[in-house]
Amino acid sequence: MKLIFAIVSSDDSSVVSTALTKEGFSVTKLATTGGFLMSGNTTFIIGTEDEKVDQVIDIVAQHSKKRTQMVPSSTSYGVGLYSSFPIEVTVGGATIFVTDVERFEKV
Amino acid sequence: MKLIFAIVSSDDSSVVSTALTKEGFSVTKLATTGGFLMSGNTTFIIGTEDEKVDQVIDIVAQHSKKRTQMVPSSTSYGVGLYSSFPIEVTVGGATIFVTDVERFEKV
Amino acid sequence: MKLIFAIVSSDDSSVVSTALTKEGFSVTKLATTGGFLMSGNTTFIIGTEDEKVDQVIDIVAQHSKKRTQMVPSSTSYGVGLYSSFPIEVTVGGATIFVTDVERFEKV
Ligand code: NI
Ligand code: NI
Ligand code: NI
């Protein structure tokens, strides 16, 4: 048995959670407080058998991989005068820690 | 030293927490965000000596075991016409993971 | 790789978080719900290489050590009649658990 801690971008949080649940994994989602440095993250705890760790990591990775995205941006040239254009930003990404479980009980 | 992660139904959360604290255990309660799939759970982190793990599991189990409960329900037979009757639902339940602590510091 | 769980007094939470981040550590801050018994705590999860565990513990300890503080207090002698004086209280303190990480992935 393993306990997996996955810290994912809040943008990908519900997609990751849905994908894991659909595959039958038990997912607990912890609230992450919005400090300025760590805002925008969600921490998941997933308990699973040793042989399914790869599958969990694959699912998390597939749904939260770092990628670039075009988002609207704008520059102001003065009062009421601005130009809007798309810029490329990096979104997503996940950090995953797998720890060993010595004992597991369901009551 | 062990670190125990106990995920219990929110219904049982304060009873479990009170019971553990009364027995002298240090309990940290993490907020679980209310996603539709995992609403209603509370995660506890409990650090304890190896020989007290059984006691922690017993306390959590005793106060959060899966059980059935009769709750009021109602069926509507038309506008303003309904029948109220009790139905049996399953409540409670806990999932407990015990992990090993390599180093423990209190400052 | 280690995963460190540090439970610190909420008073010291932002100072600890800033100090760890300044030294390049990845810190995830979990919201702790305010039960009467465990209000006032913040839980951090810090993933780090084995050889930096000491540094993490030092930083947490330095910024959250138990210490005494003088705070204003007052005793009432009747309606509208009271005396204000400082009393010494203990603040801060942290509990730190280091657990082993079997596998670490960044995606
Ligand atoms: Ni998918
Ligand atoms: Ni009891
Ligand atoms: Ni400092």
From TrEMBL, chains A, B, C:
This is Uncharacterized protein YaaQ. It comes from Acetanaerobacterium elongatum. The lineage of its organism: Bacteria, Bacillati, Bacillota, Clostridia, Eubacteriales.
